[in-house]
């Protein structure tokens, strides 16, 4: 069972603290990548502002970061079971999805298994 643990939010919000916070967001199976990609897009936007590492961010970027962190805390109770195959599987399928936009792209593969009594 995977459970997300969040760290403390920085008091002073600079390019360095945002990058440090975002770099600690790691989900081994990538199940939360659609959420984490928003953080990576945020740091990309901050990078384009061409401000120093320890300079406080503009107000709009601080508000965006604080809103993102608040939304992240809604995930603190999220639990994802990792069972892949059922015992005595009679059918196994590999299912793939992909999507893209001007800002990002993503692809996922899922395993679906069935036995005489249930499907996962």
UniProtKB/TrEMBL annotation:
Supply the InterPro entries for this chain.
Retrotrans_Pao (IPR008042)
Q: Record's superkingdom?
A: Eukaryota
* Pfam families listed in its UniProt record: Peptidase_A17
Q: What is this protein called?
A: Integrase catalytic domain-containing protein
Origin species, per record, is Trichonephila clavata (Joro spider)
């Amino acid at each position: 069972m995977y459970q997300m643990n969040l760290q403390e939010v920085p008091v002073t919000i600079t390019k360095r603290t945002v990058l440090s916070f975002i770099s600690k967001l790691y989900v081994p199976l990538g199940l939360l990548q659609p959420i984490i990609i928003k953080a990576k897009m945020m740091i990309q936007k901050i990078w384009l502002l061409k401000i120093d590492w320890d300079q406080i961010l503009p107000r709009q970027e601080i508000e965006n970061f604080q809103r993102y962190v608040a939304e992240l805390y809604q995930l603190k109770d999220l639990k994802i079971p990792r069972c892949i195959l059922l015992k005595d599987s009679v059918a196994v399928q590999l299912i793939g999805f992909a999507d893209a936009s001007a800002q990002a792209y993503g692809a996922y593969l899922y395993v679906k298994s069935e036995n005489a009594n249930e499907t996962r």
